[in-house]
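dude i think i finally got it to work??
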Amino acid sequence: MKNDEITSEDLAGFLFDSLRNKIMKLDPLMLIYPGHGAGSACGKKISEGTYCSLGKQLLNNYALQDMTREAFIKELTTGITPPPQYFFHDVAQNKNKITPVDVVLKKSLKFLASPNFEEFERNGVVILDTRSPKEFECGFIHGAISLPLTMNFAVWGGTLFIPTTKFFIISEAGKEKESVIRLARIGYDNCIGALDGGMDAYHASGLPLETINHVAAAELIPTMMIFDVRNPSELLHGKIDGAINVPLDKMTSLLREGKLGENFPLGETFYIHCKTGGRSTIACSILRKGGYTTQVNIDGGYDAIKTDNKLIKIIV
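look at this
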């Protein structure tokens, strides 16, 4: 079988054989550490735990229960989402000569104290703010999109933006190099520079900043319009009754195509959550770039709503 003839059904079949013939025969006390977490594009129905024993997985994991090979393949391949766009870019990059990281850094780490952000926007350059979600929320440059280094930075960079995207980096002072390198690891090596001195220098200059409105999870009430930007697979672990799901990985394409208004209400106040608050900050920044000012970020996300709010109904 040639590589280009392998289907998702073939791969699911390989996994069935590997699980039944090898993994499930091992010591039930063996600990398993997953390579991906809940909501990852690389899996389906991934639990939120960071490790587990094989014995518990044998009891509780849907994929390890008694079923035929055909039933297993159908279960695994039904409802799976397409892989992120950067997967295909990386495959093509890996077949060609890769630009050395020192060349990428020399090209990318051009520090500018007074960049022309309006010109960047006209030329399609993405102003990428890699600080923490809370730092971004409290003050950011007009048009900037939040993408924190504290998250799966390269994965989300490759998911949200097309490979040819040009970036201008805004980061905590001293983190510019890390921002560039982590994007370069997935072949996104089109950074055109970074803000000299970071936001501390920018803020000290007295230039205007924008902020994102936010609300504590405990303050939500059922009549509020709530949007959930988690991946569809995460909803299997629980969701807010009545919340509208618009996955974060779709939002920059909606922005590029001018379709945010088809998914989010113009002029109405609405509230956004993810699992813990990081992705919802990204979503709020994308909406702001699209002209929205009525979005409100929910502090702590779904996890905080579950523990702190007694009015909102959770469906599992």
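Residues 3-77 form one domain.
im so relieved honestly
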